[in-house]
């Protein structure tokens, strides 16, 4: 079982992780590896758990810095 609390993820992120996990298992990976890959993929796409509240940058603004 992967480390970390999953309650801070949105329903959409949890659903995406389940789909990725199923896809990885279909490719022949173990359940543990598939789950690890699934959450790593969700984290890479979204930057972690829930991203809400004021002051959050949108995806396209993350790489831009202010000079």
Automatic annotation (TrEMBL):
Name of the protein in question: Plasmid stabilization protein
Chain spans, region Disordered: 1-67
Organism: Cognatiluteimonas weifangensis
Residue stretches of biased makeup (Basic and acidic residues): 1-36, 58-67
């Amino acid at each position: 079982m992967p480390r970390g609390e999953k309650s801070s993820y949105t329903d959409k992120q949890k659903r995406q992780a389940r789909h990725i996990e199923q896809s990885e298992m279909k490719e022949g990976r173990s359940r543990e590896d598939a789950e690890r890959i699934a959450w790593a993929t969700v984290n890479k796409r979204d930057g972690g758990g829930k991203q809400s509240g004021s002051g959050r940058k949108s995806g396209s603004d993350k790489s831009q810095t202010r000079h």
